[in-house]
Every structure is written in C-alpha cells, then in structure tokens.
C-alpha cells in the first residue's frame, strides 16, 4: 500500500488484494506457531518474575517489541495498530506525515485486546503441536505468538480502509444508516458473502499448499502442519467477524460527533454492538 497516495489506498480492489496477501502472513505465522506446545505459562500473568513488569511473559515481549518498533515509526503507519498504544516511544527519525486517509479517530478503533484474548483461548489450542508446557521453548513460542498477533491485528484493522472505501463508494446509503444508528443495516451493507466464501475456499487451498511437504503431496497421507479446515474456521469465526466489527465501529463515528448522539454514551454503544456481533464470535 502506498499511503502517500490516498486514492490507490481506498480502491476496494487494491484493499482486497492486500487482504489476500495478508492471508499468506497469517497462514505462515500459524505454521511457525504450530511447532510449539500450547504453553499456558507464556500467557499466565506473573508466572515469571520480570523486573519492573506485571503481566504475562507474552505481554512483556509484545510490549518490548512494540516499544522497539515504535522507534522506527511502525505505528505511524495507518495500517499498524499497537497493543500498547499508551506505552510507545517517540522515534528519533523524522515524522512521515502521511496524508490523512482515514478519519481522525481511526487510531481509537482498536480491538487488539479482543484479538489477544481470542488468540490465546481459541486459536492457540487449534494450532499448537501439543497441550502443556515445554520450558526450553517459551521464548520461541512467545516470539511466534507476537508474529501471529501482529499479523492478525494488521488484517483485522485493515477493516478501517475497507469501511472508508465502502463509505466513499456509497455515501448516501451509509450516511442514512449511520444517522439511524442502524448497526444491523450497516453490517448487512458491508457484508459481501461471495468475497467471504472465496476467502475460506482459498485458505483451505493455502493451508494444504503451504503446510505440506511438497514431495509428499501425492502420498497416501500427506500431513498438513496446521489443519487447513482449522485455518478456515478461525477466519470464519474470528478474523472476519472482528474485521467487520472494526468496519462497523469505524463507520458509526464517520459522520462526526454532531451527528452522533451516542458519542455522549460510548459505553452503551459498545454494549449494543457487542451484543449484535457476538452471535458470530465463538
Ligand atoms: C473485507 C471486506 O468486508 C467484509 C469483510 C470481509 C473479511 O473480513 O474478509 C469480507 C467481505 C466482507 O463481508 C470486503 O468487502 O472485502
């Protein structure tokens, strides 16, 4: 994506191509993670004594990673959303000054806490090699987790670009739906079932292609490193619903505060939206 050229970024065909490319990153990061055990110790708060830190081993590593990457401007990029937005550092590099592509509140649309929870509770058990801990590998496991989480986060928050593109393509329709706070209507408007079905079909093919030893492809029982059906299920039940949640959350604020009475009561709005979207999540 060329974020210095807003028109190309908001072209829905380009956005979809970028999402297809991100599937590769997600699938390969799952394959890397699949070498290791489930490793509950990596996710348990304060399991390890870490100087000046309270939280899980994974959170500590994720935070160090984000702090370092913030120094090279990772989170200035509009397609990167941090897990620890309040603890980033100022880069010594000059600011990139991207032209505004998304609305000014875009950074506040952040579902990373939810991504991390669902990753630990639902995704890891499906892709890990075995249950239990493997002490010598907690570092490698947590590194693989950081890659998975960052790949998932980037993919899910790309929903902001999808939403902006769809809004600009059908401004009258969305303005109406947003004014009426018609969350269900917005969800229907942004949904493209054919695109979703194609994604799931392609993920099964990618799971087979990337996860199998190619020289064994024609043998009786080629073993895929991560079950392709599990990858498709994770997309269907987690990744796509969360992307759509980002789209809806972004669109609800798109007309600005004057038009949004619920801005007075953001908690109610979140509750309502979680209820509406919860059916599609695990
Ligand atoms: C991302 C899009 O918006 C929606 C979400 C999708 C997804 O998360 O993969 C796919 C299709 C749409 O229902 C899109 O239209 O491409």
Keywords:
282 residues, Chorismate Mutase, subunit A, mainly alpha, binds ligand ISJ, single chain
Q: Topology of this structure?
A:
Layout: H1 6-9, H2 12-33, H3 57-70, H4 112-127, H5 138-157, H6 159-169, H7 171-179, H8 183-190, H9 193-211, H10 228-252, H11 266-278
The protein binds the ligand C=C(O[C@@H]1C=C(C(=O)O)C=C[C@H]1O)C(=O)O.
Main location: cytoplasm
Function: Catalyzes the Claisen rearrangement of chorismate to prephenate. Acts at the first branch point in the aromatic amino acid pathway where it steers biosynthesis towards phenylalanine and tyrosine, and away from tryptophan.
GO molecular function: chorismate mutase activity
How would you sum up this structure, described in words?
With 282 residues, the protein is mainly α. The protein has a single domain, classed as Chorismate Mutase, subunit A. It has eleven helices and no strands. Helix 2 (12-33) runs antiparallel to helix 5 (138-157), helix 4 (112-127) packs antiparallel against helix 10 (228-252) and helix 5 crosses helix 10 (228-252). The two termini are 32 Å apart. Bound molecules: the ligand C=C(O[C@@H]1C=C(C(=O)O)C=C[C@H]1O)C(=O)O. The ligand C=C(O[C@@H]1C=C(C(=O)O)C=C[C@H]1O)C(=O)O binds at residues 16, 162, 190-192, 195-196, 199, 240, 243-244.
């Amino acid at each position: 994506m060329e974020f210095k050229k807003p028109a190309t970024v908001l072209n829905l065909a380009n956005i979809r191509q970028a999402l297809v490319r991100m599937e590769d990153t997600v699938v390969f990061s799952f394959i890397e993670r699949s070498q290791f055990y489930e490793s509950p110790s990596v996710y348990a708060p304060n399991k390890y004594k870490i100087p000046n830190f309270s939280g899980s081993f994974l959170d500590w590593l994720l935070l160090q990673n984000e702090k370092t990457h913030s120094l090279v401007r990772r989170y200035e990029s509009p397609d990167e959303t941090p897990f620890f937005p309040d603890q980033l550092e100022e880069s010594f590099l000059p600011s990139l000054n991207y032209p505004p592509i998304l609305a000014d509140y875009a950074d506040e649309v952040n579902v990373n806490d939810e991504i991390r929870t669902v990753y630990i509770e639902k995704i890891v058990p499906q892709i890990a090699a075995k249950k239990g801990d493997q002490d010598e590998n907690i570092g490698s496991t947590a590194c693989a987790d950081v890659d998975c989480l960052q790949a998932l986060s980037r993919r899910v928050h790309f929903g902001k670009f999808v939403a902006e593109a769809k809004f600009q393509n059908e401004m009258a329709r969305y303005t109406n739906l947003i004014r009426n706070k018609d969350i269900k209507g917005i969800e229907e408007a942004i949904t493209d079932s054919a695109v979703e079905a194609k994604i799931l079909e392609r993920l099964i093919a990618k799971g087979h292609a990337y996860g199998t030893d190619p020289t064994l492809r024609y043998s009786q029982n080629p073993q895929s490193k991560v079950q392709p059906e599990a990858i498709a299920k994770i997309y269907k039940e987690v990744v796509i619903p969360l992307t759509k949640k980002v789209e809806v959350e972004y669109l609800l604020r798109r007309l600005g505060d004057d038009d949004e009475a619920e801005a007075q009561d953001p908690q109610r709005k979140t509750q309502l939206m979680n209820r509406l979207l919860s059916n599609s999540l695990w």
